[in-house]
Structures are given as structure tokens and as C-alpha cells.
Amino acid sequence: MIWELDLAILTLVVMAGIGAITVKDLLGAAILFGAYSFMMCLLWSIMGAVDVSFTEASVGAGVSTVFFVAAVFRTTRRTKD
Amino acid sequence: MKIIGLIIALVTGVLLIGATGDFPDWADPASPASTHLSPHFIEKTMEETSVPNIVTAVLADYRGYDTMYETAVIFTAGLACFILLRIFVREEPGDRLYRHLLTGVTVRVKEGMELPPSEDFERIDATWTPPDLIIKTVCRFLIPFIQLFALYVIAHGHHSPGGGFQGGVILGASIILLAISQDLRTSVRRLREKLDAVLCAVGVIIYAGTGALCLLLGLNFLDYSALASVLHCDPVTARSHGILIVEIGVGIAVMCTMIWIYNNVSSTGKYDEGL
Predict the structure, then answer these.
(1) Which of A34, B186, B189, B241 is exposed most, by the fewest CB atoms within 10 A?
(2) B192 found inside a domain
(3) Min CA distance, A21 vs chain B (Å)?
(4) Is A18 at the interface with chain B, CB within 8 A?
């Protein structure tokens, strides 16, 4: 485990997580959530959990982002609050 | 309301962080998991199940009960999306648009009129824009390879990372890619809604049925070594094959659920042109 890489990815995870709940544009939030999932996937593979990382990449970063984009497309792009 | 939500989130966060204090340290060799469970799995998995990937063996064999209900949860999620979103509307009155497949000419059919039955016309919607030729062609080339990779992931879960969940999601994503690159009608024509829903349940039934078969053959639920007499092999190999059967069930259930959820969400339950 390279701790500099670990720290950099962990920072990006926190930034993407905070960004996903603060950004007003819901499509942007969906994309940021995808980025968050991808960073988590990198973090899992750094920790050696390759199976979890694979699941995170396919489910978290892949299909669930598509679901979010589809839901945003069919509802509204702006949050009410 | 926002303040209450914030307070609840903060209290839950503090409780969770407080609870992690009771956890054993990360990679602590004296923790119960490292002294009892992990050594057994690491040393005995190969001789008990002949599966080199310990994660797969733990997921589908030692902890098979948990994975069975995970599959059931995914099936329930698909069912919930269907019940909440699907609306069975009769054909709305008004003009309908058809496209002639060979020439690309769009035909507007007035209310009350019918096209003569023909394979050359495709129903399109007013808000629908035709997909770009490049995207369409590239996706058409890409989808078979994605599906082949997904089958590899399911079948090779014994030896490398992967298995039913990941492979099923990739298989589902390939059909979703077809729906995005063309339109929802094209993908639903390949995999009908009814077949999709039935396959969802079939995946779960394969898993639970394998467990029940073990029970019928005189051993515990999901103890795959009971399958040895059915598969004509020794109990260790039977456990390996049992894991494969179960992974296939998980793959089918997950694939169909992903497609089901996407179809319902992207067309708000109307099954028209989709995104």
C-alpha cells in the first residue's frame, strides 16, 4: 500500500461525497456519485479486496449511475432545497 | 424539518463512529475473526470445496444463506420498481408516428387510421430523436464482446475475481447499452417484459431450488456435497459445481432485475421510447 496514493484517493472520495450532496444540479450530483463510487473502487483494490472492488465498479460506478441519470431525465434536474 | 434531519444524521454518525471503537483493530491478529474463521477458510477452502478463489467459496458456499437472500432482495427491488412505476395505459388518442425502416421516411398516421400490417414500419414517439449512426454502430459491435466478458466473469468466478453478481450486472448493462444507443423498444423486442420478469424469479428459484435439492438428498440446506449422487462426482467437486449452479442463478436474477429497473425508470413505466 502506497500511503500517498491512498491519501490522494481518500481526499477525492471525501470531496466527491461532499460535492454530491451540496451541488444543486441533480445530473451533476449523479455524475459526482459515480466518481465517488469509482474512487471507492480504487480504494478497495488498494486494500486488496478485488472482488468488492469489481462489484463497486460494475454496480456502483456503472449501473447505478445510469439509473440515477434515467431518474433525473424523467423527473427534474433542479433540487427544491 | 431540515434541522431535525441534520440532528438525526449527526447523532447516527456519532453513534456509528463511537461503535467502531469496539471493533478489533484493522488486521489485528488477535481478533476473533482472525483467530477462528480466517485460518479455517484460508487453509481448508481448497481441500473442502476445490475452489481457488476463497471469496467465491465463502460467498456462495460457507455463507450461501446470506447470498440467497441478497438475491431475493435484488429481486424485491425490481418488483418494487415495477409495482410503483408500471402503468398500463391504453393507446392514447392522437396522431401516431411511424418510420419506414428502409428509407427512413417518417409517416404520420391520423387519429383513427391504421397502417396496413407490415414489418417495414417502426413505431416512434414525438419526443424521440433518432440515435446517431456512429454510436449505434459502435454499440452494436461492442455489445457481443461485453456479453462474452460477462459470461466469462460468471463462469470464471471460481478462479478469479467475479461471479454471479458482477457478471449479471455486466450482462444487464449490455442490454441497457442497447436501450440507450438505440431506443427502449428495440431492447424490449429482444427481451420481452414478461420473459424478463419470469427470468428474475427463475434466477432466485435456481438458487433456492439447489438448496432445497440438497435438503431432499438428506443433507443440510445449501450443503452442495449432497449433489454428489446427482452429478456423479465426489463431494468436494460437487461443492465446486454447486457454487457454479448457484452463481448462474444469481447471474440470471441480477441481469433481469437490472434491465427491469432500467426499463421502468427510463420510460416512467410506459415502455415507450425510453431515454
Answers:
(1) B189
(2) yes
(3) 13
(4) no
